[in-house]
Amino acid sequence: MLVNKLSGGALHAVFAPVGNLARVDAVVRRLADAIDLGLLADGEQLPGESELSARLGVSTVTLREALMALRQQGLVTTRRGRGGGSFVTVPDQPPAARLGHRLADWSTEELRDLGDHWAAISGTAARLAAERTEPGDLAALLRSLDEFEAAEDLAARGRIYGRFHVELAAAAQSARLTKEEIRIQAEIGALICLALGEDDGLASVARLQRALIRAVRDGDAEQAGSLAERRVRDAMARLIELRLADSGQGLSGPDPPGRP
Amino acid sequence: MALTTSVDVADVVDRVRDTLEDVFEAVARVRERTVAIAAVRAAGRPLTTVDLAGLRPLLHDRLRRHRDLISGIGFIAEPGLLGDAPAWLEWWQTSRDGELRPLLLDLDPHTSAYSDYTHWDWFALPRETGQRACAGPYVDYLCSDEYSLTLSVPVHHGDRFLGVAAADVYLRHFEAAVIPLLRVLPGPACLVNARGRVAASTDARHLAGSLLKRPDAADEVRRWPCGDIPLVLAQMRSA
Q1: What value does the mean pLDDT take over residues A198-207?
Q2: Residue A172 has pLDDT above 90, yes or no
Q3: ipTM for the whole complex
Q4: Were both Cys, which of A118, A186, A219, B115 would link to B109 (CB 3.0–4.6 Å)?
Q5: Domain A9-92: assigned CATH number
C-alpha cells in the first residue's frame, strides 16, 4: 500500500522541528516515542539524513548522534550500501517496560514544566470551546470517550486520549491551540500511556472527561477550564510519581551517580 | 446619508454566492471525472488507487487556477470502495512554498487515531443527505492544520455511493475574498453558517469562529440567504 506513515495531519508532528530542548535528547525522544506509539512501524525506513535533519530542524551532526543513541537502544538499525539507510526496529520488550525506560530520560522539573504548559493550553482550549461550541462539535468528543473506554491496549488508549485533547482544542475554533496541543503530545508522546494507569486510574480519567464534555455542552467555561487543567495535572502528577519511584521500583534508567 | 436598499444587499449576497459557486464548480468537475473513471471500471475489476491517480492533472489544474481561494482538492473514497486500499484520499494541496503536494495520511487504524475520516462533516453530510455541503469553519487537524471551509459533493455511479469530491478554502483566503464585498454595506455584517457559526465578519463584536444564534443576537437587523449556499448574511446594528 502506498500510504506513507511519515506524513500528513497530526503525524506531521513526528518530524516537525524539535525546538529548544537539548537537541540530541529531543530527537531521540521524538523518534523513540513515535516507535513506541506505533507511528513508525517495524522495518519502516526513515527519511535520508539530510531530509530528516532539515525536517527536524537540527544539524546533520546532531541527527547522527541521535541515531547512534537510538541504535544503542535497539530502536533503529542502519544498513549501508545500496538500499541502505536507517530502519525502525520495534523491540520485543513489552511497551510498559520500554516506556519506563523512556520516562527516565525526563527530570521531574521538566515533567512539571511540561505539565504547566500543557495545562495552560488545555485549560484555555476548554474555556473557549465552552463559549464557542454547538452540539455538532460534541459528537467527536463523545465518540472519543467511548473509544477510550473500549480501547484494548495501552497504545490505542494513549492515542485516543491524545485525540480527545486535539478535538477539544479544535472545538475552541483555534488552529494555534490545536497545533500546540499536537506539538505537546508529540513531545510527551507515548509516556502519556503510563500516566493513564490501569483500571482505577482509567475509570477516573473517563469520569473527568465525561464531566468536561458536560461543562463544554452547558457553556460553563470556568468549570470546563478547571476540569481540563485538572485532567492534565492529574496525568502529570502520576508521571512524576512514577519517575520518583523509578530507582526503587526498578524502572530501568541511567544509574544514579556514584553507584557502582 | 447613505441609504442601503435591498438591491445593494442582494448584490453583495450574489457576489458572496458566486465566490463559493466557483469553488463548487471545481468540485463538480472532480465529481464528473471520478464518475468517468468509475464508469470505465464498472464492468470489470474494482476501482484502485492507480485509477484515481488519473484525477491528478485536473486537481493540479484547479489548484493553480484557483490559487487565491482553493488550497486543497480531491476525491475521498468511501471505505471499502477500492480494490487495493481499505480507505483513500486522492487529495492534493498547495503548500506554503507554493508547491503542489499529495496528502499522505496514515489510514491504518492500528497505528493512527485519525484513520477514520467518515465522521467529518465534509464526508458525513453529503453521504447522509445526498446533497452538497459547506462544512466549517472548523480546525482541519486531519489535512492542513488550518481553520477552513470544506465544500463537498457526493459522488455516485448509478445508485452506488463512491465517496465525496471536495475542496478546502482556508478561512483567511475566504476572508480576503468576501470582506471587501461586505464592506460595501453601510453597517457591519456577518456571514453565518447553518449551525450559527460566523465564517466572516466586519463586526468586531462577532468574529469568525464565534456563534451567532438568533435569540442571542440582539444587535442583529436582518438575515439574507446566499442563494443555494448554506450561509446567511446577517446585517448588524452599528456599534
Answers
A1: 82
A2: yes
A3: 0.87
A4: B115
A5: 1.10.10.10
